Amino acid sequence: MDAPEEDLDIKLQKISGDLIAEFDKSLPSLLRKSDGSGGTVVRSRVRTRETDRLISSFLDPFQELPQLLDPSLPKWLPQLGDAFLEYHHQQNRGLRRALLSTRSDLLTPLPTAICRLLYTFCKVRGEKVTVRFLSNETRHLEPLLSALEEAERRPESQLQWSWEERYIVLLWLSHLMFAPFDLSTISSTDAEDDEGLPVIQGFSWPSDGKLPGIAVRILPLAIKYLAVPGKERDAAKALLVRISMRKDMQQLGVLDALIKWSVAALQVSETENTTPYYHIGVLSFIAGVLSSSASTSDMDSYLSTLFDTVHQATTSSTTIPSSALARKTTIKVIRSIAILLLRNPSPSDSATATIEETISFLLESLSDNDTPVRLAASKALSVITLQLPPDMASQVVEAVLDSLSANILRTPFGCRDLSAVNPLEWHGLTLTLSHLLYRRSPPPSDLLAIVSSLLTALAFERRSPSGTSTGTNVRDAACFGIWALARRYTTKELLAVQQGTSILQTLATELIVSACLDPAGNIRRGSSAALQELIGRHPDMVEKGIWVVQTVDYHAVALRSRALREVALAATRLAPRYGEAILDALLGWRGVGDVDAQSRRAAGQSFGSIAAELAGDSVIKLKESASFVLGKTKGLQTRQAEERHGLWLSFAALLDELPGVVEKGGQSGLDDFVKVGVEGLQGIMEDCQGKTFRKPELIAEAASMLIISAFPLLQAATLGTGDVFREGTVTRLLSGPALLTKTGAEISLLAEALGTGPDSLEKVAGLIKANVHSFLFRPEEEVIPPASEAGLVLLIFCGKAERERIIREWSEAVRHRPSGRASTAGGFFSALVISYSIISTLDLGEEDRALICDAILERWATDKDTDTRVLMLRSLTGSELLEQNVPVFLRLVAEGLDDYTTNARGDVGSLVRFRAVKATKALWERLKDREEDKSTLSMVVSELFLRILRLSAEKLDRVRAEAQTAMAAALAPSIEQLISHAATLRTSTFSSRRYFGFLLELLGARQGRLHPAMAEAVSTGEGKEGLLEEQWMDELMAGFVSSADTGNEDLVIATRAALCDFCEQSDANNNAVCTSLARNLKRFQGQDRVLVPTLEVIAFLFHVAVFGRCVNVDCKNLCLQVQKAGYKTGNVRKLEACVRVYGAVAALDQDGGSAGTTSGDRRKKSEGAVEARKRLGALMFHPWPRIRSLVVDELWGFAITRSHEPVAEKLKGVDWGTAGKPAVKELIGALTLD
């Protein structure tokens, strides 16, 4: 899996200052408001959205680098804590009444918001760091406790505390338990007698003396929340541990009472009503108490009882074994018990038996199904082993190594076969070894076996029946182990480990392979970190060590494709041994056997480049690599489609490197390479034709790529190895990718020079032809490009007659639409377009030379299928066929830009528009800088520019983003090398206010912003006056309104804001926009796609007092166009938009006219208002109640603005959706709507 190209931690470091500053600015206003006398007071409620924004936008991003928050924590956390205390202090004094529950999610009580923020700090930075910044004054202890108790007693009618509030208060109380003096001096009251003590199931109150009131109040709450499934359990555990370990509480018997209660709780029978969380809470309390007493003897008397109880509960109960968290907590308990027992230099026999039983239990837990349990067991085992005597510690290490050696089989070739091992157990065992190495428990004499196990684990991989990887954890643990080994052992100790070569060099080589090839990003980075530690701790022990660290960098290997192609090649250039190891691993599960197709493609390219680097100028060495790959291919089973795909791509990459190696080394060995390569190619083509494979699309793709890459092989076989060294570029070996970059004229010359191939290639050519024909029928997107490019190679090595027959065959396949549900495969479209480059080699007449263009145009005219049109446009994009036949295909591209086909799938026409935009952009980029193509460019711009402008403002993000890049291609690259308008447009977010503002302003500044060639084409493209400004604005508004009405919320806000800004700049801008919308209202009658958004935007501009200032629009005529739009329509949304426009126009004569308006303008507005009121009156008789209700809403605003309060009263108290005609007529007469 690839990590992001730009690492998140680096981005976070760059923006952390802005995030912290914004949070610092927003926090005070969230917590407090003005009290009206110059001071501030805490709020009662805050906006939920604001709290969510602070958490998600400013705090959550810091989870990767939480230490960046440290400088600000002393300022923020006390603010939050003080506001929380002040709120509850005011409530206790009666200054704030209790908040009743509400169904609204828009507001949140202030304490809830504060605790959500504090919990987020605990999540990001850790609760131990967060809680120490809260007030530790003991005067807050009882108020916090009282608030929690009051929340427990609160009735359902009042707002209940959230779990964050309970968690934070319990955590805060646990922090206050660090008070250095007795609780009896803090408590306001003491418990009076035993009868007044609360009853806790299974708990007996100590009788050593009267407990402080605080302790009596805390214990029931802490025990209650110890059994809940949420985070409150962690805080309750901390509180219970802190209060029980206090010296004054131990003297009063609280610790003893709680231990007896916990033992009794774990002995609860299965029939009693307990949950796994109850046992988890009890176990976590025991673990916490044992951990807190690690340096004291407070728990020594309870160790035996606790071990027996916990061990019995683990084996006899079904509740604890069923919970991974309970098992993990159990491991923590018995680990702490074992460590406390090992403090005694001479443990008793019972203690020794307990320790041995603990070790046995932990070894069994290493194969647990849950990762947290294995992690806890491995860590516990390493900690205990560190405390053991040397002889017992060596036995533990030996037991771990023996378990790693179990179930390992051997293949007939002597290699290890790990198919029988348990990957979960291997993870636990490897992690245990790593923890042991980190604590330097194993002696140096055991390192040989440990290193061997770690190297095996570093390349470990197993897949589950569903195909998911189960070996990632094992490799991750191995990285940790090698890092610990390099850190804890000296160079002398590691050099003493003999394994053929230096163990340090072996480890470094394997880490380089893992860092370059491993599928998991955390393994690649972990290997890089371990490699850096190894080389840094043991200098001059690894070949090219410093350069290796700089090359196999932590950030460089984050992107897997980069690690495979660039980092692996760079490491090979440092030392051949690294390249050989990588090359060998590429032919395994981390390369050609990877389950991800994209990774196999990258691995194939990497194999070719590394093999060529190792070969240098020797074709013989390159032949050895090719023979090795072909040998592995022959050993594959038919079902191994992924491996076959990867190996064929590797062979193709080797062939791509052949011309470069030949250029360096000359002719030596080329004959043998050609012989081996042609035989291998023939065998692969025979397999493709004669066998049926799983995943045929992968086979078709790899075989097509191989045919393309085999071009230098076939070229050498056709010309003879001696002719490829003659002077002249036509006869020199050319790689497949280089062939595809040649122009049509160059390809034609090459085909003429090659002529007819020798008889020895006839069989290969026939196989290629049959396979290419079948590949072209494949519909998969990853097959179409290579299959069509393989068709070009086929045409080059065919005779002229055969070449013409194939092209005519492809033309017929494209020209006629298949009958039934079958569709023409996209490979034929692409192959036919590519074949245009070689058509000049055929002896055809003028009419026949146009057969390719005619076939495509005829199919476009007769086939309206969206998928077919997408395939045709994709094949034309960037092709010589389109570039050299612009007048022929211009109309086709224009129709593609205007395709708004919709069906049950939605706006499927957007797929066609997207491809047409790509074709237009490619055409512009090729033509705009050529002096000889000015007339063609003018034709293209006049036909396509306004369409691209419209699409650059439409609502669909995918189309708009692509149109943005096309528009950028039409802009000037720079002005005096200072401003790049193209860069300005490209860097603007395609949904931003700035972007839409740029589009609106482009009309007025087109001469300065358009590319000179494009500006000239615009000025001469449409009649004598060029592209009319009206046409420009009309097309822009046709796309703009869709974004301003039916886009997502942020898009609507951005477009409407940009539109208002543009209209406010000048009256000319305002008039241009408004008149354009009015023209589009007439132009797009019957096209609801544009008509409805236009109506909505007109209504919006009226309501923001923009459209009303326009003097160039006849409002009466506008109303008539609106009436025409809504006539006999069943589109409710269109009718609603019409009503809103009528309501806005009806109110025009109330403003008295703005400054500068003439009496004629005011008369036109008045006539328009009269017409609008008539239309509103007529719509009061509409059969749909929803429309009548909307009309009443508009009439209400109309009546209020005219100060017709008596008339407005008539609108009240009547359900106008069901009112009769007499009442409606009376209302119309009262409002003069007739």
Describe the structure.
The chain contains 60 helices and eight strands. The protein is mainly α. The longest helix has 25 residues. Strand 1 and strand 2 form a beta hairpin. It has a two-stranded antiparallel sheet with strand order 1-2. Helix 7 runs parallel beside helix 9, helix 22 packs across helix 26 and helix 56 runs parallel beside helix 58.
Task: Based on the model shown, name its key terms.
mainly alpha; 8 strands; two-stranded antiparallel ribbon; 1234 residues; two-stranded antiparallel sheet; flat
Report a brief summary of the structure:
65% of the residues lie in helices and 2% in strands.
* Nearest-integer average pLDDT: 85
Computed over alpha carbons, the radius of gyration is 40 Å
Q: Which ranges are low-confidence, i.e. pLDDT below 50, for 5 or more consecutive residues?
A: 1021-1027
- Order of the strands making up the biggest sheet: 1-2
- Give the DSSP E fraction (strand runs of 2 or more residues): under 5%
What percent of the residues sit in helical stretches (DSSP H or I)?
55-70%
According to DSSP, the number of beta strands is 8
Number of helices: 60
The termini sit apart by 70 Å
* Gross morphology: flat
Name the structural class.
Answer: mainly alpha
For the sheet with most strands, the description reads: 2 strands, antiparallel
